[in-house]
Amino acid sequence: MLNSDQTEIDLPPAHSEPESVFSDCGGVHTGSMEDAGAVGLCAQSRMAEPGEAVKKELQHLSREERRRRRRATAKYRTAHATRERIRVEAFNMAFAELRKLLPTLPPDKKLSKIEILRLAICYISYLNHVLDV
Q: Locations of Basic residues compositional bias (predicted)?
C-alpha cells in the first residue's frame, strides 16, 4: 500500500535477486528495456528529494505561518505536553512544600492554592511582628 508521499519506485523490490535494478539505482544493468526505464525513473526520483520541495514551499511563508505549521505537528504537540506536565508537577510540589511549613488546625487540613498563599502571607507578617517585638 502506498502512502501519499511514496511512489512505486520507493518501494522495496518484490523479488530477491542480489543485483536488482530497484535495490540500487546505480547498479549494473543486466535486465530488459523495462528495467532500463526503471533505472531512469529511479535516477530522476533521486535528484528531486522530498525535503527540498518542502523547504521551497516554506520559504515564501511568513515567519508566523512557519511557526504555526511547525507547532501543528504531532511531535511538537507531544513535546509541548511533556514540558507542560513537568512544569505543573513542579508547581504543585512547590505548593506542597509551602503547605508543610504553614501551621493550621487541624494540621492535615486540605487547602486550596489561594488559601495556601493567603495563609503564607499572614504567617510571614506574623513572624515579622514577632521579630519586631
A: 66-78
pLDDT at 15: 44
Distance CA 117, CA 124 (A): 11
Grid cell digits, residue 115? 488559601
Which cell goes with 109? 487540613
Residue 25 above 60 pLDDT?
Answer: no
Annotation: CATH topology of 53-132: MYOD Basic-Helix-Loop-Helix Domain, subunit B (4.10.280)
Give residue 49's pLDDT: 63
Cβ-contact 113, 121 below 8 angstroms? no
Tell me the helices (H) and strands (E) count for the chain, helix number first. 5, 0
Report field, pTM of the whole predicted structure over 0.70? no
Q: Which three cell numbers stand for residue 39?
A: 533505472
